[in-house]
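To whoever is on call:

I kicked off a structure prediction for a single chain this morning and the downstream step that reads the tokens threw a length-mismatch warning. I double-checked the sequence; it's 217 residues and nothing unusual in it as far as I can see. Pasting both halves so you can look.
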Amino acid sequence: MSAESGINTFRDADGLWEGHDVMDVASPQGWHRDQELVLDFYNQRRRQLKEVTPNDAHRLLADLQNSFQVNIVTQNVDDLHERAGSNEVLHLHGELLKVRSTVNEQLVYDWTDDLNKGDLCESGNQLRPHIVWFGEAVPMLESAIEITALADILLIIGTSMQVYPAASLINYIQADVPVYFIDPRPAIKANDYSNLTIIEDKAVTGMQKFIEAIGLD
């Protein structure tokens, strides 16, 4: 979804994220092994986020609020949906512009600058990125399931359908709900699910085709 804004995907085809093995920068083991590396990695991502803007796909999704109740469930950790104007955004895998205590995960803070060793929560414990790493629980999953189960239309944009439990959300829709899947290299086929329409395109042009398909253009 954010690739056309200049943000690389979480895991590219070579298994790397911005040139790093994801297990080095997105796992509890990586954190315990080298906190400086992890902090620097997310500091760079945070700086990069300040330099990019929402793309037309973000804006088209936000515009859909004029016609529908739109709930966005995203695996992305950036804030581009919010900056485009979307009001209901659930971040399954955390948020880059927040940090939390390493001891009490309920202590979450807004954070727009670099995070360094020695930056502490109010209880005196080191802060870490507010990101759901591999091997950690996904605390917003139940809310995402509830949203999916109530959907009248399910739109999936730009995902490998390989990262669980997020990829399992499609299984919670009601039987007669139409599903649209936008991706230039779709990981599923039209006959994999009932009522599935595949739009084999990038997010921006795919969103334009989706809007035409539902009769809003």
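Update from on-call: the warning came from a stale cache, not from the record. Cleared it. Sanity check on the structure: Residues 3-213 form a domain with the Rossmann fold fold (CATH 3.40.50.1220).
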